[in-house]
Specification:
This protein is mostly helical. It contains 2 helices and 2 strands; from the N terminus they run H-H-E-E. It binds zinc ion (ZN).
Length: about 110
């Protein structure tokens, strides 16, 4: 048996839907995916990187398409230290293009 985890994340990483809207979304998901083992609503205090765990598809630069795994971890750590993920812009080391961490190609 395999597990599938779906995470729905607002495009605006600072947006938190109202509690009633989140509950409505949970009810809707339970209705459309009745076989789901668990449907939960989670709001964190800070913006975070949602790691997909063992299903990591890799990451590539959206500008040049090269593999970005060599610099993604350090760039993520720096973005967290610098702004707690509120500012994600950086110059991609692979091609020198201005990119945003949340616009990288995660497969
Ligand atoms: Zn690049």
């Amino acid at each position: 048996m395999s597990d599938m985890l779906l995470s729905f994340i607002p495009r605006d990483r600072t947006y938190v839907p109202a509690p009633a809207a989140r509950e409505q979304a949970v009810e809707w998901l339970r209705a459309v995916v009745p076989t789901a083992h668990e449907v939960v609503d989670t709001v964190t205090e800070e913006i975070g990187f949602i790691d997909c765990g063992e299903n990591w598809p890799g990451v590539c630069c959206p500008a040049c398409g090269r593999n970005a795994e060599a610099w993604f971890g350090d760039a993520s750590g720096e973005a967290y230290d610098r702004s707690r993920f509120r500012e994600l812009s950086l110059t991609a080391p692979c091609c020198g293009t201005g990119v945003s961490l949340d616009a990288l190609d995660f497969g």
